[in-house]
Amino acid sequence: MRIALFLALFIFLCFYGFQAVRAATGARWIHIIFLGVSLVILLNFLIRMLLPTEDSVLEGRNAYAFGYILAWGALQLILILFLFSEDIIRVLIGLFSKKTYSSGEFYMPSRRSFISRVALGLGAIPFASLLYGMYKGKYDFRVLKYELEFEDLPDNFDGYQITQISDVHCGSFDNKKKIAYGVEMIKDQQSDAVFFTGDLVNNLAKETEPWIDLFGSIKAPDGVYSVMGNHDYGDYHQWKSADEKAQNLKLLHEAHKKLGWDLLLNENRVIERDGQQLHVVGVENWGTGNFSKYGDLDKAGEGLTPEDFKILLSHDPSHWEEKVEKGGENYQLTLSGHTHGMQFGIEISGVIKWSPVKYRYTYWAGIYRENGKYLNVNRGFGYLAYPGRVGMWPEITVIKLKKKRTV
């Protein structure tokens, strides 16, 4: 039923879009190309969705089929906005036209080629952007650096540098050379500690196998610490049995060990410098709505006091909003991911920061400060479903902790 509705919607969009192409040019070969591309994109998507493959709908060629139909659909939507607006004007002109009253037949002016050409030109922008995101944007790794001041930071950790990565989704990767370049950028930061904030895989532990050596090469003097994200539990995969799902989770835990990452499952660790301590707290995934709630902040923080300086690793930023900020817990810095910045948006420093994901999450990308507590939401290293990024580039976060000096 869903496929039938989708098929009907896509055909409608392409039919309406074709009217713009036909109004813009009388060249039949262009008409044929437009219809041919529409048919190929549609058939490719239907074949990838209907035929059984080893990949999920989020991976491999399936993801590219989704990406193509998303880009083509964006073009059609722009065309419809222009054509529908013009059609309203055409109808109004017809209703009040002297030609309608004099002839007794409804007169409706033809579409103007200029409007259709403008629509095609503007529609080409999101279409080209989404294609660029699929082949270039998803590898445009950015290092974002921040300095954050804390009054209660232990003196011996003044200038302490951490690197955060998140949302690797290694089951989506298709270019080892490009990913290796991103990993080298992580290593080049030479931070004191590295933190990974969840979603190592899309669904299956075996997705990690081709990437163990590469990501396992990430080292830091004080260690690499990790937590689980919502995709890591296999909740979005159809398992034959509960035992099979449990075995997959066990294998994923073992993958973290193979990587040399210290996986925190509602627990904490201590980093010490000359008798002073910084505490790393890691919770399992906890998200509002239908997302899994495996995280237990009380258990993760056992043995810690409000005076201890703590860095909390929590995949979903809604956990910080609900349990840390509103809950009054004294976690000076929380590191999250999850949103990906929706892999699409517009950011110009100091001017605009926008993505559709902002209508779902209060805190969705970058640094936030509420009630004296900081949150960083990493935009993610990898990608999911749409195999690309536009505007919300893959991110490596580097944060330097500074002691706030009072005069």
Give a structural overview:
The termini are far apart. The protein folds into two domains: 134 residues, no CATH class; 264 residues, Purple Acid Phosphatase, chain A, domain 2, CATH 3.60.21. Strand 4, helix 8 and strand 5 form a beta-alpha-beta unit. With 407 residues, it is an alpha/beta fold. The radius of gyration is 26 Å and the shape is elongated. The chain has ten helices and 14 strands. It has a six-stranded mixed β-sheet with strand order 1-14-2-3-4-5, covered by helices on one side. A six-stranded mixed β-sheet has the order 6-7-8-9-13-12.
In brief:
This protein has 10 helices and 14 strands.
**Order of helices and strands, N to C?**
HHHHHEEHEHEHEEEHEHEEEEEE
CATH fold category name of the largest domain: Purple Acid Phosphatase, chain A, domain 2
The CATH H-level superfamily of the largest domain is: Metallo-dependent phosphatases
CATH architecture annotation name of the largest domain: 4-Layer Sandwich
Based on the model shown, name its key terms.
10 helices; 2 domains; 407 residues; Purple Acid Phosphatase, chain A, domain 2
